[in-house]
Specification:
GO molecular function: phosphatase activity
Structural class: alpha/beta
Strand order of the largest sheet: 5-4-1-13-14-15
Helix content: 25-40%
Strand content: 15-25%
Organism: Corynebacterium testudinoris
Distance between the termini: 31 Å
Number of domains: 3
Order of helices and strands: EEEHEHEHEHEEHEEEHEHEHEHEHEEHEH
Protein name: Putative sugar phosphatase of HAD superfamily
Shape: elongated
InterPro entries: HAD-like_sf, HAD-SF_hydro_IIA, HAD_sf
CATH class of the largest domain: Alpha Beta
CATH architecture of the largest domain: 3-Layer(aba) Sandwich
CATH superfamily of the largest domain: HAD superfamily/HAD-like
Largest sheet: 6 strands, parallel
CATH topology of the largest domain: Rossmann fold
Radius of gyration: 22 Å
Length: 330
């Protein structure tokens, strides 16, 4: 039985998991479509609060997925879900973010304002490249007057084609510095987005899927969900070996296509003919066959590395096949 047979939904990260640089990652569309055929729903969860769910859904449809707006949860939506525990319909809120964030708040039944003089009950801050001193100052004034403070996410950087730019968390830090008040954050690696997505689907056994250990996997683990890590994005083999316990996935695959493999094969453990053992401060990777793969070696090493109480100094390949697969680790 495949891993999919044990779950009723996939909570999927986007960047590095489903797409990269505007293009679908090889195998992603086939895997997600195959899951739908098997009766496993997909919900796309993203820390990006700049785009509305309709924009994300349209991009996914252009890639060939049958996706509706309701299949997407952004950190802006998750922040509104979080704030709903403190607010009532018609309450005044100050949105520090994009027009799409303001529209979502209006749709949720709140009265959206832009000034602290309107005495908002809550301030919700999300990423907007056009934010400046005036908007951040209005947020600080409102928070000092007693407004409850929420952030869509605390990502300090924003990946772009030019490199890492200032992220929402860095602008939140300015407000925190001015007020001494830290916000409640709805984004990964917190559990709120995963709770929100699962509640929207009404599922009991979701699988959180992503490529970043410190956001996707840590967030899924925090929500006490099974987690599946793919090697198509940010966190590679070396990061997995060094991962603290809260960032260790339940399963790991080369890509989303591995969702069709048996559960046991996707867990850390000896496979592919490899064995691993501790030698001093190192882990030795031994044996293997010409058909053995890199991820089989990784799962073999992880069983030993994660059971050890300290980080290994080196992973030492001790055979030609081990040398071959480890050469590509990053």
């Amino acid at each position: 039985m495949s891993l999919l047979s044990n779950h009723d939904a996939l909570l999927l990260d986007l960047d590095g998991t489903v797409w990269e640089g505007g293009r679908a990652i090889p195998g992603a569309i086939e895997a997600i479509s195959g899951a739908a055929t098997a009766g496993v729903a997909s919900m796309f969860v993203t820390n990006n609060a700049m785009r509305g769910p309709e924009v994300v859904a349209e991009k996914l449809r252009a890639m060939g997925l049958d996706t509706s707006d309701s299949d997407v949860v952004t950190s802006a939506q998750a922040a509104l879900d979080m704030a709903s525990e403190y607010l009532q319909s018609g309450d005044t809120v100050l949105i520090v973010g994009t027009d799409s964030f303001r529209a979502l708040a209006t749709q949720a039944g709140y009265h959206v304002v832009s000034s602290a003089d309107d005495n908002p009950k809550a301030v919700l801050q999300g990423m907007n490249p056009d934010l400046g001193w005036r908007e951040l100052s209005e947020a600080a004034l409102a928070i000092r007057k007693g407004a409850t403070y929420f952030a869509t996410n605390l990502d300090t950087t924003l990946p772009t084609e030019r490199g890492f730019m200032v992220g929402n968390g860095s602008m939140v830090a300015a407000v925190v510095s001015a007020t001494g008040v830290a916000p409640q954050s709805a984004g990964k690696p917190g559990p709120a987005m995963f709770y929100s997505a699962a509640n929207r689907l009404g599922v009991r056994a979701p699988l959180a899927v992503g490529d970043r250990l410190d956001t996707d996997i840590q967030g899924g683990n925090a929500a006490r969900m099974a987690t599946f890590h793919v090697l198509t994005g940010v966190s590679g083999e070396l990061a997995l070996i060094e991962a603290p316990e809260e960032q260790r996935p339940t399963y790991l695959g080369q890509s989303l296509l591995d969702l069709n493999l048996p559960e046991k094969e996707l867990r850390p453990g000896a496979q592919g003919g490899f064995t691993a053992r501790i030698d001093g401060a190192d882990i030795l990777l031994e044996r293997g066959t010409p058909e053995s793969t890199s991820i089989q070696a990784l799962r073999t090493v992880l069983e030993v590395a994660w059971a050890w109480k300290k980080e290994p100094a080196l992973i030492r390949p001790m055979s030609d096949d081990a040398e071959r697969v480890v050469a590509g680790w990053r």
